[in-house]
């Protein structure tokens, strides 16, 4: 039973490091993408999409756009590096769709080595949230491991 506590602690710490490492990767990718060339793009689709799960309604933006690079046409649906994910905040998603209305002309950045890779928005709060979540998981894991240590050393007895 007490080893189960240690396993949970280690899993929390590993999850925290995983979140932080992925956030750093996203931050690095966004930093590189800031130097990419830009092209005008036409928004061909912009809508709030609902999905259901875990007893909650979730929303995510579905935005598609077309752009041209060196005479070739491309289409994409990538909004930001790391993706937008889903949220229960419909207003947040509606604001994104309002910013990128169907038939509006915007600017996209594209990878000069692979023009099919492009993004509408390089600013994202996802890495900040992931870093904060990662830190919280690491702290929680250390707390859990300290409880394991106190139980193993006999300073604390588990309540069953």
Helix content estimate: 40-55%
- Oligomer state equals single chain
Tell me about the largest β-sheet.
5 strands, antiparallel
Total of domains: 2
Q: In what order do the strands lie side by side in the largest sheet? A: 3-2-1-4-5
Span between termini: 10 Å
What's the alpha carbon Rg, rounded to whole Å?
22 Å
Number of strands: 5
Mean pLDDT metric = 90
Tally of helical runs: 3
Low-confidence stretches: none
Strand fraction band?
A: 25-35%
Class inferred from helices and paired strands: alpha+beta
Order of helices and strands: HEEEHEEH
Explain this structure.
The protein has 160 residues and is α+β, with helices and mostly antiparallel strands. The chain has two domains: 1-34 and 123-153; 36-121, no CATH class. It has three helices and five strands, in the order αβββαββα. It has helices spanning 2-33, 90-99, 126-152; strands spanning 38-53, 56-69, 72-76, 105-111, 114-119. It has a five-stranded antiparallel sheet with strand order 3-2-1-4-5. A hairpin with a 2-residue loop joins strand 1 and strand 2. The termini are close together.
Task: Indicate the topology.
Layout (H helix, E strand, L loop, with lengths): L1 H32 L4 E16 L2 E14 L2 E5 L13 H10 L5 E7 L2 E6 L6 H27 L8
Antiparallel strand pairs: 1-2, 1-4, 2-3, 4-5
Helix pairs in contact: 1-3
Q: Quick summary of this structure?
A:
By secondary structure, the protein is of the alpha+beta class. The protein folds into two domains: 1-34 and 123-153; 36-121, no CATH class.
């Amino acid at each position: 039973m007490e080893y189960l506590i240690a396993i949970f602690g280690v899993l929390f710490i590993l999850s925290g490091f995983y979140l932080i490492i992925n956030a750093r990767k996203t931050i690095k990718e966004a930093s590189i993408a800031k130097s990419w060339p830009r092209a005008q793009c036409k928004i061909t689709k912009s809508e709030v999409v609902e999905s259901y799960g875990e007893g909650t309604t979730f929303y995510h933006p579905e935005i598609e756009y077309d752009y041209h690079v060196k005479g070739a046409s491309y289409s994409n649906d990538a909004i930001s590096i790391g993706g937008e994910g889903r949220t229960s905040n419909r207003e947040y998603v509606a604001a994104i769709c309002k910013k990128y209305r169907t038939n509006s002309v915007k600017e996209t950045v594209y990878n000069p080595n692979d023009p099919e890779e492009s993004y509408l928005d390089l600013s994202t709060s996802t890495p900040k949230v992931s870093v904060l979540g990662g830190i919280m998981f690491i702290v929680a894991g250390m707390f859990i491991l300290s409880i394991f240590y106190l139980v193993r050393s006999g300073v604390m007895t588990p309540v069953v």
